[in-house]
Amino acid sequence: MIDYIDKIKQISKQILTDCRVDMVIGFRQGTVPMMNEPCFAKTVDDVDAFVWDSHCGINLANYLTGRKEKIGIIAKGCDTRNIVTHIIENKIDRDRLYIIGVPCRGMVDRRKVNALCDSIYEVTEQGDTVKVTGENLDRQLARADLLQENCTTCVHPNPVIYDELVADEVEVHTDVDRWADVKKIEAMGSDEKWSYFDDLLKECIRCYACRNACPLCYCPTCFVDESKPQWMGKGQDETDVRTFHFLRAYHCAGRCTDCGACARACPVGIDMRVFTRKLEKDCFDLYGWEAGLTLDVRPPLDTYQADDPEEFIK
Amino acid sequence: MKIIRIDKTDWDSGLKKSADHYRLVGPTQEKDFFLYKPLKPGKAPDMSFSNTRLSAKGTIYPQSHTLFTYSLDPDQKDHHLLIEPENENPPTAVIGIRPCDAAAFVQVRRNFDAPDYQDPYWLNAYENTVLVGLACDQPGPACFCTSTGGGPYDGTALDLLLADNDNHYLAQVVSDKGAAFIEKAGWAGEVETDAAMQIFQARKAAAEDKIRSTVDTDHLADAGTMALYDAPFWEDVAFACINCGTCTFLCPTCWCFDIQDETHGMSGQRLRIWDSCMFPLFTRHGTGHNPRGEKVQRVRQRFMHKLKYYVDKYEAGVQCVGCGRCVLQCPVNIDIRKVCELMNNAGKQPVTCTA
Amino acid sequence: MQNPYLPYPVRIDNIVTETEDKNLKTFKFVFENPEDEEKFDFSAGQFAELSVTGKGEIPIGIASSPTEKGFVMFTVNKVGLVSSHLHTMKEGDIMGIRGPLGNPYPWDTLEGKNIVIIGGGFAFTTLRASILYILAHRDRFGDITVIYGARTPGMLLYRDELAAWEKRDDIQMHITVDGTDDPDWKYHVGFVPTITEQKAPPGDENTYAIICGPPIMIKFTQPALDKSGYRHENIIMSLENRMKCGIGMCGRCNVGRHFVCKDGPVFTLSQLERMPKEY
Question: Which backbone phi and psi does C193 adopt, to 5 degrees?
C-alpha cells in the first residue's frame, strides 16, 4: 500500500495546480509509531508532506463537515461510503469534491502491535510484512495478522465513488463470515449480554473521542450536551454512560459504514462497534441495506415502503 | 535522607499492615492497560506496569464527585439547602504512583490552593493522601519528564520514592507522611544512606538515558502573549483535532471542571465533573455566543494555557509533566512536544508586540 | 477551611417583572441567617452565583447598592436552564447565593473624579448599584453623567428610579430608546453611541467612563469616547463569560491568563487591548 503515495502526490499536485480544488486533505507522517496525522495541503509544496501506509485508518470524511472550500480528499473504501452518506444527508455537494480513491488492503490496529511490548519505537512495512522494533523487540509480522477487526470483515475495500483511483482495485474477500462477531453476541442470554456490555463500557471516561471521530456525528449540539431539556446526566453514572453509547449507536443505524473510527479513537480501548455492528446487520437483514454504496437510493430509515418488515414492532 | 530497604518478601505483608490505617490505591491491570484503583483487601498492586493509561489525578480529584447533597421535598428539614458530605477523605496511600503524576499534583495545587480561595475537596483529599512513588526504570516512548522540571527518579513531589532493586525496594523517605506510612507498614531495614544514594544515582542515570525526547521551554516566558496567540501555526496545529476530551482527561495536570445538579426524584447531588476546554459547551454563553466557538480557538487555548498563561501566572514552568499520555493516546496525533517547539521557537523571535 | 462552593441560604422576598417582554425579573433576597448578610460584604460592580437547588448556579451582577440594607437584589434575564427555572419561582422560596465574587469598579481610583456611566439593555444592574452608591456618597465624586438606552421604553430597567434621578440636579441623566411610537416619550431617541457622542463630557485625566452593555453597543461606543478624548486607562468595562465556580478554579471564563470571575469582571479598555478577544 505504501506504493500508492507517488500517485497520491501526483494527483494532489495536479488538482491544486489546475485550481480544481482549494485544498487536499490527506495524512502526514505522525510523531509516534502507527499514528499519522490528518493534514491539509493548499500548495503543491505542502503535498510533499503526504504519506500513505497502513496507519491511515482515521476516516477523513470527518474533516469535510462544515467546510466551504473545494476539496480534494484521499479516501479509502469506507471513507467514500461516508462521503456518499454526507452527500445524501446534504452535508456536502459532490461538485465541491475531488475524490482520490484508494483501494484499501486494511489498516493496522495499533493496539495489536502495542500489546507486543511497552515501548514501540518504530513500525515499518514492506508488502505483506510489518517490521516492529521496540524495547527489547525486533520482529517481522504478517500484516494480515495485525489488521483492525473491521478491516478483516470488510467487503467494500474499494472506493464506491471517486474521481480518480490511485491503483487498480483490490480483490474483495468473499470467504469471511461478515457477521460472526454479531452472531456471537446475539446468541448470548440476556444476563450474559448485560454483563458483557457492562464490562465493555466499564472504563468509558466520556471523552467522546468515539463520537467526534465519527463522520456521522455532526449534530451541532449532541443530545448529551443539550441542557434544555437535559436528556442525561454528565457524570460517571453507569446508566448515563450506557445511554450515551446506546443512543449514539441508534443515531448511526443505517448510516454506519463500520469504518472503525470510533473504536480506533477510544483512549481506553472500548470496541463500541459492538453496538453499531448489530444495527448494521439488522439493516442488512431487514432491508438489504448497506450504507453509503449509492447516491440514488434513500436510506431505509428515512423512507417508508409498504413492504417494510414490521415483525420487530410488538 | 533516610533510606529503607524493603525486601520484596516483606512487601505484601507490609502493605497488608498499612491497610489497617490507609485506604490503598494502586496500579491494577484492566484489559490491556493499567489504572489506579482501590485495592481490595489482600490484593497487591501490580508493580509491573510501565505507566497507567489514566493519570493518578483521579485518586485525589475524581472524574465525578459529590460537592453537596440536597432534598427538594418540602416536608424534609433543610429542604433546598446544600449539605456537605462528611468524612469523605480517609487516609489514603497511592502505591506505585510515578514521579510525573506526583509532580502534577504540585502544579495543580497552584490552582486549587490560591491565596484568596482554597478548594476544600481537593486540598483535604491531597492532605490525606500519602504518595508512595515508584521510580521509573522504563520510561515510555513519548516520555519527556526531564524537559518539564522532573525526572524518572525525581522524588520531590512524593512522600516515598521507591527504586526497584531486584529482590528489594530501596525507599527514600521524602516526607514525614512517608515516614509514618513506612512505620505503619512495619518496614524498618534502614540502610546506609551514601551507598544507597549511589544506587539511586546509577539507576537514575540509566533511566534518564532511556528518555527519547526532549523539549525546549526556555523561550516561552519571553514570548509575547499576543504574538503567540496570533502566531500563524494554529490553523495547521488544530486541523486534525476532533475536539474530544482524550488529552484533557488523560492529562494529570488538566483540572478544569463543570458543576452540575443531578436530581433523582426528590433528592440529588451537586456534582463536580471533569470538563474539557476542547468541548464547545465549555465556554458557550446562555445567549449562544461562544468566545471559543471555533476548533482552532479551543486547541490554541489548551496549549496557550499549559505553555504560556500558566508559565506567566505562576512563574514555575509549564503546566505539563511530560508523561506523554496525550501524545500516545490522541486519536489524531496532535503532539504537545511539537506544539511546544513551535511556541518556543516563536519566543526566540524578537518581540514586536509589548503585550 | 471555609467552603467557597457553599451558598448562603436566602429567601425570595420580592419579585418584580421589569420589562414588557417579561424576560427580565428583579429578585430581592433576604438572608435566612442574618449573620450571612454581614459576611456578604460587597461593593458595586461585584457579582454573585445564584444557586437554584436542583438546577445549578448562574453568575449575576449585584443590582443593589451596598448602601441598601436588609436585602440583596438581582435582575435576571431568562436565557438558560437555571434562569428559566428561577423565573418560575415564587416569593418565599428558598435558594442560595454565593459571593460576593469578582472585583468591583475601582472606587478608590474614582474618588474625586467625574464619571460617565454608559449602559445598554439589561446590562444596567451593577450600574444601578453604582449610581445608588455614588448618590449616597455624592460629595466624594465630581460630575456624574448617566447615559442609558434600551430598544423601547418598556425595555428599560428600574423605570421609577430613572424618573426620580431625572429630577435631581446632582446627576445628569440621558435616557434613550432605539425607537418608540409613544407620543408622550420625553427623553432621547437614538442609539447609545450617538447619545454618548453628543452628551458625554469631554475626556480628560479626571474623567472616567464605566460601560456595560451588549457587545454591539460597546463596539460603537468606544469610537465615540475616543472622539471625545477618553484615555483607554479611564474606560472601565465589565465582561461576561460562561462561569461555573466563580472563584478562578474551574477554568472556563479565562481571557488569556486572566479569569473574568476572579481577575475581573472589571477591566480597563487599555488592559483589554492587551488580551485575546475571547469574551
Answer: -60, -40
Same structural domain for residues C85 and C189?
no
Q: List, for residues C118-161, the tens digit of each pLDDT value.
A: 999 999 999 999 999 999 999 999 999 999 999 999 999 999 99
> Among candidates C118, C180, C182, which has minimal Cα distance to C149?
C118
Mean pLDDT for C265-273 is 95
For C:66-125, CB contacts with A below 8 A are 80-81, 84
Provide the pLDDT confidence category of residue C1 given band limits of 50, 70 and 90: low
> Alpha-carbon distance B108 to A222, whole Å?
30
Buried b or exposed e, range B92-112, using 16+ CB within 10 angstroms: bbbbbbbbbbbbbbebbbebb
Q: Is residue B293 part of a domain?
A: yes
In a domain, B68, yes or no: no
Could you tell me if residue B73 is inside a domain? no
What per-residue confidence (pLDDT) applies to A2? 65
CB contact under 8 A, B81 and C94: yes
With a cut of 70, say whether residue C9 has pLDDT above it.
yes
Cβ of B277 and C96 within 8 Å? no
The answer to the question of residue B197 being in a domain is: yes
pLDDT above 70 covers a percentage of chain A that reads 99
Count of alpha carbons within 13 angstroms of residue A261, beta-carbon side: 28
Residue A108 contacts residue A120 (beta carbons within 8 Å): no
Structure confidence by residue, pLDDT tens digits, C19-28: 999 999 999 9
Is the CB of B123 less than 8 angstroms away from the CB of C1? yes
Which domain CATH number covers C120? 3.40.50.80
For position C88, which CATH number holds?
2.40.30.10
Give the tens place of pLDDT for each residue, B118-174.
Answer: 999 999 999 999 999 999 999 999 999 999 999 999 999 999 999 999 999 999 999
pTM equals 0.94
Closest CA of chain C from A227, distance in Å: 7
Q: Which residue of A lies nearest to C56 if distances are taken between CA atoms?
A: A227
Measured distance CA(B294)–CA(B280) in Å, rounded: 8
**Same domain, residue pair B18 and B149:** yes
ipTM tops 0.90:
yes
CB proximity under 8 Å: B 155-214 to A: 212
